Amino acid sequence: MKERERQIIKLANSMDIFDSNLEEYSRVMSPFDAYNESCIVEIKHRNEYWQEPVIEFSKYTFNKEFAKMNKLNFLYLNKLGKYLVLFDILYLESIDYDFKWHWKEMPATTEFNKKEMVEKYVGYINVKDACEQIEIV
């Protein structure tokens, strides 16, 4: 996990967004970043505000099935500029949300020194469909 995601966990915990504090999930290359007794959380950091943040299909499918099997919720927490935006993925799935899935050429990783591009199957979630949107002061 990158330091930015750790900072987002600390920020979310300090704002009491979740029913109990999130803990970092320490497995290397895990499809989710944090958890508590009721949910798993995938975290993304963007310097700018995106109206429709991207979600990778591979993480979406694994995490929603993992959450269901373990009777947890799957939440997607994005830091978008000066906002924390939280999406309840299982709720969106339950209402047949249109993620607009498609193939897109994207960086293989978000590490700055690696420039390799690969095709990823991705979707989008409009921030108007978030369950929480909190301005960070």
What does this structure look like?
- This protein is of the alpha+beta class and 137 residues long.
- Helix content is 23%, strand content 34%.
- It contains three helices and nine strands, in the order H-E-E-E-E-H-E-E-H-E-E-E.
- The protein has helices at residues 3-14, 57-69, 89-94, and strands at 23-24, 34-35, 39-46, 54-56, 73-80, 83-88, 102-107, 117-124, 132-135.
- The strands form two sheets. The protein has a six-stranded mixed beta sheet with strand order 1-2-3-5-6-9.
- Strand 5 and strand 6 (83-88) form a beta hairpin.
- The model has no long low-confidence stretch (mean pLDDT 94).
Radius of gyration: 14 Å
Judged by helices, strands and strand pairing, the structural class is alpha+beta
Chain-averaged pLDDT:
94
For the termini, the CA-CA separation is: 25 Å
Overall shape: globular
| Secondary structure tally, helices | 3
Report the sheet-strand fraction. Answer: 25-35%
Strand order of the largest sheet: 1-2-3-5-6-9
Helix content: 10-25%
Give the tally of β-strands: 9
> Which stretches are poorly predicted, pLDDT < 50 over at least 5 residues?
none
Tell me about the largest β-sheet. 6 strands, mixed
Element string (H = helix, E = strand): HEEEEHEEHEEE
